[in-house]
Amino acid sequence: MDTKLQLSAVPQLEMGSHDGRPVLGHEDKSQLHGTDNMMHKSDFIHMSEGGSFPGVSCAGSVKMLSHGICRSIKIVLFSNKLNLLMPFGPLAILVHILTDNQGLVFFFSLLGIIPLAERLGYATEQLACYTGATVGGLLNATFGNATELIISIHALRVGMIRVVQQSLLGSILSNMLLVLGCAFFSGGLAFIKKEQVFNKSTAVVNSGLLLMAVMGLLFPAVLHYTHSEVHFGRSELALSRFSSCIMLIAYGAYLYYQLRTQDNQYEPLNEEVGQGSQNVDDDDEEPEITKCEAVLWLAVMTAWISFLSEYLVDAIDGASNTWKIPVAFISVILLPIVGNAAEHAGAVMFAMKDKLDISLGVAIGSSTQIAMFGIPFCVVVGWIMGRPMDLNFRLFETAVLFITVLVVAFLLQEGTSNYFKGLMLILCYLIVAASFFVHVDPTKGT
């Protein structure tokens, strides 16, 4: 880009001066004005790369740099009303230091993570503008699940294996039922006189991967509850670790399939729009921050979520005792709703723009990533840490996941959606939430 700027500036400078004397015609004033603007941009580019230009002082470069930083902070931190919840993060730390009220610490931490998860999704979308559609969809799914993975690793480090299992399970259920249901429902209301369509083959592939994940979780649970292990307590752990490695290989093959073989999975099917509307879409997707700024904000948001997650995980038991709510409900329902804030907002927004393939990629793609990568990854990390993290999620949780995958797979097989399908998914999620509200974990070994 800077080479083009330099080449376009040189001829204009030569036209403005000949034999050392200025020669002004009818067009020269506007050309000189354009030259000044071009040289200003060129100066800024060279300054940002560490170069120097005559006539531009060090104070000027510092001023331009500070202006860029202030602009980026204003866009990221002050352009969304949800960011009003950000002070609850430091407030949670303050309450933890000054009091022993774990319920307030958990509640404030939960509120503080909500805008961070949303801004993490925003920075990911900005970075995705510099990549292709498929890579952008994978980035959205990956960093959209970063919050759940960070919370899970902190819980795994302190030995809260059931919280890890249930929070990851809750993330899958939330994405498949609540996020996808809200996307179908809002998109159906926005286009109430027609059925929205999406890529059925992509949905079938994701449904197959989710059923494979159910298989990986079902066999260790059945092995445990039928008491048919060769070595009691050790065979299911060994099977879980082996199955996790297989699932990671399968997910790696799926990524290769997406990136190399099917590079247009996130392109919308309804191509009957005109060239004018296509240009409008391109304008809508123009990034607001640079690539370097997006990467920097991703690092900052991830680090702050990781720091705040420690207080959140440590306060789970205290919040359960204070509020008289089962830990299973907190892990399966409350934590994933916070972690999926970015996916929820993004999926609904794209569905209302009739870009249902992107909504499906965010919701179902995120569920697939948690099931085929997040859960096996935590098993491997627990193996490295010496924690007995396995794929035995207990019969109740495994049955809920199995039924959920079947319901969603049946609703996706036609390749169409409407508000009634979305309403059914939302109501199914309410049944799941009520089930975990009255569910108590069985004692260990049963």
From TrEMBL:
One GO CC term on file: plant-type vacuole membrane
Transmembrane segments: 91-117, 137-156, 168-192, 204-226, 238-257, 325-342, 362-383, 395-413, 419-440
Subcellular location: Vacuole membrane
Main location: membrane
Keywords, comma-separated and alphabetical: Antiport, Calcium, Calcium transport, Ion transport, Membrane, Transmembrane, Transmembrane helix, Transport, Vacuole
Pfam families named in the record: Na_Ca_ex (PF01699)
InterPro entries registered for this protein in UniProt: CaH_exchang (IPR004713), CAX-like (IPR004798), NaCa_Exmemb (IPR004837), NCX_ion-bd_dom_sf (IPR044880)
Sodium/calcium exchanger membrane region domain location: 104-259, 294-436
Membrane topology, as annotated: Multi-pass membrane protein
Single GO MF descriptor: calcium:proton antiporter activity
Biological processes annotated in GO: intracellular calcium ion homeostasis
Family the UniProt entry places it in: Belongs to the Ca(2+):cation antiporter (CaCA) (TC 2.A.19) family. Cation/proton exchanger (CAX) subfamily.
Function of the molecule: Vacuolar cation/proton exchanger (CAX). Translocates Ca(2+) and other metal ions into vacuoles using the proton gradient formed by H(+)-ATPase and H(+)-pyrophosphatase.
Name of the molecule in the record: Vacuolar cation/proton exchanger
The species this protein was found in: Trapa natans
